[in-house]
């Protein structure tokens, strides 16, 4: 068969060109392009790890700032609470002082009113005694026809009012 005979003649030539192409591909791609791709991948990996480290450092710094901020907030909150307690205490003391002053004024007015009422009561009692004494004298004069002196009528009315 002629096709098989020709295989032996072209076989060595094909192997030669296969090795030449393989060597050319090896040197162009293997020695030229692959190192560049690997350098790019390594550079990219390095950049990613650097970015992750920077992000972690930024996160740690943010956590520290947040902790400091929370500490300041807690201190400010406790200071505000202390101010509120102090303001409540001073307001309560001021209110109590005002109430004490108002109570004192009310007590003074009440004492004055009680004195006026006592005076009015005494005056009313004297007036009632005078009217009762006068009425007793008139009644005794009309019914019994006896003239009673004013001192006796006053004494009788006082006795009757005290026991009555």
Radius of gyration: 62 Å
Q: List segments where confidence is low: pLDDT < 50 over at least 5 consecutive residues.
A: none
Helix count, per DSSP? 2
SSE class = mainly alpha
Mean pLDDT: 90
- Helix percent reads over 70%
Dominant shape: rod-shaped
What would your notes on this structure say?
Helices cover 95% and strands 0% of the residues. With 164 residues, the protein is mostly helical. The chain has a domain at 21-125. Helix 1 (2-143) packs antiparallel against helix 2.
How is the secondary structure organized here?
Elements lengths: L1 H142 L6 H14 L1
Helix pairs in contact: 1-2
From the structure above, extract its key features.
single chain; 164 residues; mainly alpha; 0% strand
What would a concise description of this structure say?
The protein has a domain at 21-125.
């Amino acid at each position: 068969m002629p096709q098989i005979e020709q295989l032996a003649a072209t076989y060595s030539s094909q192997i030669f060109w296969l090795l030449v192409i393989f060597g050319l591909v090896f040197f162009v791609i293997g020695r030229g392009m692959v190192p560049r791709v690997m350098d790019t991948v390594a550079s990219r990996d390095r950049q990613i790890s650097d970015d992750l480290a920077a992000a972690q450092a930024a996160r740690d710094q943010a956590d520290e700032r947040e902790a400091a901020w929370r500490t300041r907030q807690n201190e400010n909150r406790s200071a505000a609470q202390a101010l509120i307690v102090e303001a409540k205490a001073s307001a309560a003391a001021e209110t109590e002082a005002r109430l004490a002053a108002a109570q004192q004024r009310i007590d003074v007015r009440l004492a004055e009113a009680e004195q006026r009422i006592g005076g009015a009561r005494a005056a009313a009692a004297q007036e009632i005694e005078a009217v009762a004494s006068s009425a007793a004298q008139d009644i005794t004069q009309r019914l019994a026809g006896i003239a009673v002196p004013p001192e006796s009528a006053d004494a009788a009315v006082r006795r009757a009012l005290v026991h009555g």
